[in-house]
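Thread: iron/sulfur cluster complex, take 2
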Amino acid sequence: MAINPKKHEMPTQEPQVRSHNFDEVALGYTEEIAIAEAQRCLNCKNQPCVNGCPVNINIPDFISKIKDGDFEGAYRVISKSSSLPAVCGRVCPQETQCESKCTLGIKFEPVGIGRLERFVADWHNENATDAPGKPQSNGYKIAVVGSGPSGLTCAGDLAKKGYKVTVFEALHTAGGVLVYGIPEFRLPKSIVAKEVDTLKALGVDIEPNVVIGKTLTVDELFDMGYEAVFVGSGAGLPNFMGIPGESLKGVYSANEFLTRSNLMKSYLKNPETPIMKGGKVAVVGGGNVAMDAARTALRLGAEKVYIVYRRSMEELPARKEEVEHAIEEGIEFRLLNNPIEILGYDNPDDKFDPKNGFVTGMKCIKMELGEPDEKGRRRPIPVEGSEFVLSVDTVIISIGTSPNPLIKNTTEGLEVNSRGGIIVNEDGLTSREAVYAGGDAVTGAATVISAMGAGKMAAIAIDEYLSSK
Amino acid sequence: MYKIIKKRILNPTVTQMEIEAPLIANKALPGQFIILRVDEDGERIPLTVAGTNKQNGTVKIIFQIVGATTEKLNHKNEGDSIQDFVGPLGVATHIKGLKKVCIVGGGVGCAIAMPIAQAVHEMGGEVTSIIGFRKRDLVILEDEFKACSEKLHLMTDDGSYGRKGNVCVPLTEMLEAGEKFDMIITIGPLVMMKFVVEAARPYGTPVTVSMNPIMIDGTGMCGGCRLTLNQDGKKVTKFACVDGPEFNGYEIDFDEAISRGKMYWDFERHAYEETCNLFKQA
Ligand SMILES: Cc1cc2nc3c(=O)[nH]c(=O)nc-3n(C[C@H](O)[C@H](O)[C@H](O)COP(=O)(O)OP(=O)(O)OC[C@H]3O[C@@H](n4cnc5c(N)ncnc54)[C@H](O)[C@@H]3O)c2cc1C
Ligand SMILES: Cc1cc2nc3c(=O)[nH]c(=O)nc-3n(C[C@H](O)[C@H](O)[C@H](O)COP(=O)(O)OP(=O)(O)OC[C@H]3O[C@@H](n4cnc5c(N)ncnc54)[C@H](O)[C@@H]3O)c2cc1C
Ligand code: SF4
Ligand code: SF4
Ligand code: FES
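Output below.
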């Protein structure tokens, strides 16, 4: 049988329809499509794809179970390495990870590994009946700080081994970026809620509204009888550009804009938390976060949404699929443009004009790409005299985030690097005894799968440490 | 869920509640705040910790009913619970070493200033308090301030109680008469704090102001609470929730803060009306 050179297409909502709703864009493979896609896999002996996956899921093994129609079996293979397949199957940058190493990809399109993973996880969530039982307790108490993918994974793995785990979360809902950052149309909140419920069924306590470093400190956790602490506090501190006009009304960090829409549900018909909707919106930046902010703005009713990025399409760091979705939905890419000032309304005759201080536009300068730097990325250089004004009402700044210094500042002896990331060894152990860390808090903004992997690794290390104590 | 243990109406627009939250009661210091959500899907709003009772594990809040969320909160009664209550957030007031302090509070800002006045007093410092209100029936916490102040100046805009005039009147008189304060701590409407800074400027008295920008998370994650400070001629961005809420009054860009506070004015008026209608129907 000849191999189909293309991946089976993902069924999606039509762009004109989905740009007006918050329902999930990608609808998922059917059983038939999943089996057909699985049949494209060559079951390579040397398994190059497995090396491309940060947590080394046994990809050919789970795919051959799909071929056989044994979807639950496929799920069991994946769950040996990943605790969040329904999430990672949706949001992993597969094209630079597992799928980039796929043998099939040399000549054709690679196997749709992420799509198959998502199919298997969704199938399990819909059909599996076995509720996880509470494991026998071993008496040890562990504290996990933060309920993002790293924290949830670490908590789940330890709970399965019999540890009594409490997850402390600063916000009112568990899930980290999965609930406050990534929008509903890319990752439905019900999927995250289901993962959290599974943890609760395993006996994990989730304590929302506790800010470690404020409500309790890491040292107090030890005083309370916790024998090890895992810090998975993420990299939530938004960076600003430092250009004039950043404090005008209508300028948001991507975190604020997405938090208002996702976590605080400003997208509902009658929300309690306000957000600026409609008008023209410029999103500054080119990563996944920028794409999410742009597509959220569109769905909230913006008449025009621009992505303003200082390099070209080639350097755009966002996932290809998300960029394609954004273009289909009508988001306009203003590439090789760099903002230099945000302009606001200022009525010279009326100091009390209610329009004063609201954004009216963003002054940008055109850029061209110079010689590649040490990392091989071509450096953008401003073109003199090319300034122009983009007329907009809202500006969303999405130029990255850094780890929050709160825990470092309140935990004596916890060392961090120059970018604020917590320093850990290969086991995830920090400079403090029995304090482990992982995910974005260590690496700076990265990916869900790497955060999950770090949580897994730390769970193993914590188990070894306490068993040998 | 966090239970309301006590509720007291201080005046027609200001209510005091004691909320069961032992971890916060154990930790909170004057100047810190909490963030609450009244119910699921509710807005997150910040309120200052107006006192704690470690034995009972309760935290006191005093809030003015100004919009939808505070209106909804005011409809809760003793025994009811609120959905979320997190803290203590922000940096505590730096009162260490202060011997002579002038506290200037305006309206509900007096509630926020009161625990600071008490703390300075308990530390053995000398407290002069100036508290200002629009009119007589809005006066709150007069006895509490009397108890911890050497001198108390009570002002009303219309002269219906205490002395007529704004809080800057007695402040300027004292400074002109040569009174020296280690620190003026002022909490109230932004415009009032701006004028307090201007009143103190000629005398070079240090002024601490308590900023109240719109917040969401309160942990430094959104940047919505950002303020611009002028430090040695350089513009510096600070997040009120983690770097504040108290700042050096001479450094704050008040005009910007006043403008940003009005970002959602239309939305807020509308939401307030809707909530009031809802409660009227019920
Ligand atoms: C908008 C957006 C889109 C993204 N899209 C993708 C994508 O498509 N694919 C992908 O792989 N990755 C994506 N990412 C990145 C990915 O979400 C993160 O790398 C990942 O969530 C990091 O997980 P974490 O567990 O380290 O931390 P987080 O998910 O950041 O969770 C940390 C949690 O800790 C809590 N916390 C922080 N401090 C404290 C404290 N002191 N006390 C208690 N709790 C605390 C926080 O409130 C938060 O809930 C995206 C990120 C964003 C913001
Ligand atoms: C650190 C801090 C401490 C505070 N302490 C107190 C206090 O002890 N007592 C008290 O009465 N008030 C306090 N406030 C102000 C209080 O948070 C607002 O009055 C409240 O959020 C209004 O909500 P609302 O829905 O009832 O009114 P809305 O109609 O939403 O708004 C009325 C006004 O409140 C402000 N506001 C609205 N939403 C927020 C928000 N999420 N965060 C901050 N301000 C907002 C706006 O500037 C607006 O003009 C404090 C504010 C801050 C930042
Ligand atoms: S977890 Fe991500 S990288 Fe690993 S196989 Fe699944 S989609 Fe690929
Ligand atoms: S590399 Fe591609 S074809 Fe080979 S086993 Fe992995 S998924 Fe299948
Ligand atoms: S309230 Fe979000 S950063 Fe301060």
